[in-house]
Amino acid sequence: MRKAGFTTLVVCVLFCAVGAWAQGICPLNGTTVNKMICVLPQVYGPFGLGTAPGNQGTLRTGFHEGHFGSDFVSKQGPIGEAVGTQVSQLPIASPSSALSFIYDTSLKTFVPSTEETLGPILGERAGTIGRRKIYVAFSYQHFSFSSLDGIGMKDFPVILQHEADDPQPAPACCAPCPKQNGLVGTDSSGKAYAGNPCYVRDYIQTRNNINLRANQYTFYLTYGITNRFDVSAAIPIVNVSMDVSSQAGIVQNTIAASRFVLPGNAFHQFNPAIVSGCTTSPCMAGNFTDSLSKTGIGDVLLRGKYEVLKGEKTGIALGVDVRTPTGDAENLLGSGAAGVKPFGVISYSARISPHAEIGYEWNGDSILAANFVGPQATNIKASLPNRFVYTVGADASINRRLTASFDILGERLFNSPRLVSSPFTDFGSCNTPTCAVYTPGTAHPDVNVVSSDFNETNASFGLKFRAVGKLILTGNILVALDDGGLRSHVVPLVGVSYSF
User: Fold this and answer.
1) In CATH, what class is 36-499?
2) pTM of the predicted model, to two decimals?
């Protein structure tokens, strides 16, 4: 979850002419949108950190409106994409049966095979279930996400930089700053800061807490078409909840002239009529929260697998997974795009049974990879990243009823947006409207966006227990081995299955 990526926290676009631009799914025009992908953009309310006609925005309107929108948009993209993509593609247990069946010519019926283990849990083995046999199963997994690309989600720093402005002749508000010290580089739209007014030195500093959880309930069905070919379906029911809190403070690095009649001579300030807790004027800090929970069907996975080599101990199978976009992507219940993953499996049957699987997944276009926030959003879908996946492991028979399973599960995502720590150095401060004394800027924690390939690796440890007859109970934990992407560092799984 391109990622997918979770997640900076703040998104907003400011607008001047209502109705002049297209509206995103999260429009930030004063309308609250009850969708999971809008929780982050609306943590500051239905206007985001915007201004609006009639002094209704989160930032106070007056002689000068705040212009921090482009930085919100440039940092928002990988958040919604990382969260949505990865939450919608959570790992599930293998839809392969714990038991397989062979035809006994003497008995003239199918009987359980002589395989010594009950099979892998998140991995895959080559064997199929057997002609006209049916496997049904259920699993539950809990995900509590704690980091995104190695950045802790409990204390997530974001700096919102003022956009570059067009200088105007004095005495207008937008005359070039008398001291241009520090005003270098460009904003996220590529516009240069050189020659800008002093107020572009102001910035908004935020510290954020994202509490993102997912409960996944998955139903499995496998049916044997022939002795070597079976088809499967995995149907997830997903509950996703997100609670976001943000402490935001406007850092005043410039002083407005008294003729502008602004409280505290501050060009940028929060609107006390909108922001709760604003008890001083000017209001330069606020605490914001937003939360939502949704439940529904996720992306249904369909699988076909054919065992091309069926040896006495060794098996090789080829198959294909098709992910259908049945989940509601706007509520983080699905990816919003179809996915196709051909794969190959090799396994060996013994008391210790090794297995390996490789595959490559092509993904379609999704709203999660689009620009869907603010009045300028296009809502045009874009491609989710493709990925190479592999699993290697083994299951070992402890006794006839109990099997231990171990797997390493890895994937490499291609050309995916990622968040990286990138300290922000502010432009420095002026002590008067004429910038009589200039103080150089300092560095502050911040994040930036890059596009690159990266790996995600997990280890799986579990047990399968044959309680009675063909009833199998499963317990497993999935442990993250690196920090790539949106990570829940320990994921428990419990399940039950039956073959007949």
Assistant:
1) mainly beta
2) 0.86
